[in-house]
């Protein structure tokens, strides 16, 4: 889980931002918009900062198990597609 967090947190500042979500998914061949990336962050962000720190990541994925960035990306892709129909 920590390796997945670190692989998304490209600038190593301890938080994941919208641009890092977009870049992580793009590296896996998935292009998403900034608004879709914000929806992903909002689903994990528990303190309203529009960033995700290690604790938020860890607690979120305790309830939504995923072990690799690919699994996380598939889950996020499903979430953004589901939200688009709402």
From TrEMBL:
Q: Name one Pfam family in it.
A: EF-hand_7
- State the protein's name: EF-hand domain-containing protein
Gene3D superfamilies from the entry?
A: EF-hand (1.10.238.10)
Which residue intervals define the domain EF-hand in the entry?
A: 1-31, 32-67
Does the keyword field hold Calcium?
yes
Cross-referenced CDD domains? EFh
What GO molecular-function term can you cite, just one? Answer: calcium ion binding
Q: What keyword terms does UniProt attach to this protein?
A: Calcium, Metal-binding
Cited InterPro entries: EF-hand-dom_pair (IPR011992), EF_Hand_1_Ca_BS (IPR018247), EF_hand_dom (IPR002048)
The organism's taxonomic lineage, starting at the top: Eukaryota, Metazoa, Chordata, Craniata, Vertebrata
């Amino acid at each position: 889980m920590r390796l997945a967090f670190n692989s998304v947190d490209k600038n190593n500042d301890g938080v994941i931002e919208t641009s890092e979500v977009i870049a992580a998914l793009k590296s896996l061949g998935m292009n998403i918009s900034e608004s879709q990336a914000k929806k992903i962050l909002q689903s994990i962000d528990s303190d309203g900062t529009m960033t995700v720190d290690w604790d938020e990541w860890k607690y979120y994925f305790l309830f939504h198990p995923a072990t690799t960035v690919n699994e996380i990306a598939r889950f996020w892709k499903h979430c953004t597609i589901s939200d688009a129909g709402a």
